[in-house]
Amino acid sequence: MTNDLVLYTNPMSRGRIARWMLEEIEQPYQVEVRAFEQLKSPEFLAVNPMGKVPTLVHGQAVVTEAAAICAYLADAFPQAELAPAPSDPLRALYYRWLFFAAGPMEAAVTAKALNLLAPAERAGMVGYGSFEQMVDALEGAVASADPWLCGERFTAADVYLGSQVLWGMQFKTLPEREAFTAYAARLTARDAYRRAAAADDALIPPAPQA
User: Fold this and answer.
1) pTM, 2 dp
2) How confident is the model at residue 208 (pLDDT cuts 50, 70, 90)?
3) N or C: at which end does the chain have fewer Cβ atoms within 10 angstroms?
4) What burial class does residue 77 get, using C-beta atoms within 10 Å of its C-beta: 0-12 exposed, 13-18 middle, 19+ buried?
């Protein structure tokens, strides 16, 4: 497979997660920025029928959903060592927190922001149970990170779950907890994170003057 990587993104979207992951694998990639109003164009819908970013094209492969992009890149470029080997017992921990962030965590945060959390008597119907239960599980994972979710090895799970923690703190969709703050400081100190953030920030149009 060709190593040509093309990321369709918008700097004010979950595309920031995919760019961070691309910086972590340290492979050349091309960026195609799309304004939100362009995502429903026939041209883009031919690439991603959902009309969403991020969308990653790698040769003939098309990968959507930020968590899937992180997992795909970790496996496609094993030399970056961003995922435990399938035979490594840490692979279970890696999958657990990567998909916890993509499933229960994101669902609970979104539901709370929209005032659509499941009532207590129906908590068993949703993957997150209750918002508080999700936050406590997240805190346990992050507090145990030493320094990362899989111990000494930084992985794609840290990119994805870490992005959710960083946004939760920035937009106050997660409560302030010491474990979150400490984990966030370790994440934002990474060179790849800083390169990705600087590249995306440079693409954000300046706010109109009052």
Assistant:
1) 0.95
2) confident
3) C
4) buried
For residue 74, pLDDT beyond 90: yes
Domain ranges within the chain, ordered by starting residue: 5-81, 90-194
Tell me: pLDDT of 1 over 60: no
Whether 187 contacts 7, CB under 8 Å: no
Residue 161 has pLDDT above 60, yes or no: yes
CATH-assigned architecture of domain 90-194: Up-down Bundle (1.20)
Separation between Cα atoms, residue 62 and residue 68, nearest integer Å: 11
CATH architecture for the domain at 5-81: 3-Layer(aba) Sandwich (3.40)
CA distances from 172 to 56, 135, 151, 160 (A): 29, 13, 27, 18
DSSP string, 132-149: HHHHHHHHHHHHH-SSBT
The enclosing H or E element of 75 equals helix 66-76
- Exposure class string for 113-147: b at 16+ Cβ within 10 A, else e: eeeebbeeeeeeeeebbbbeebbebbbebbeebee
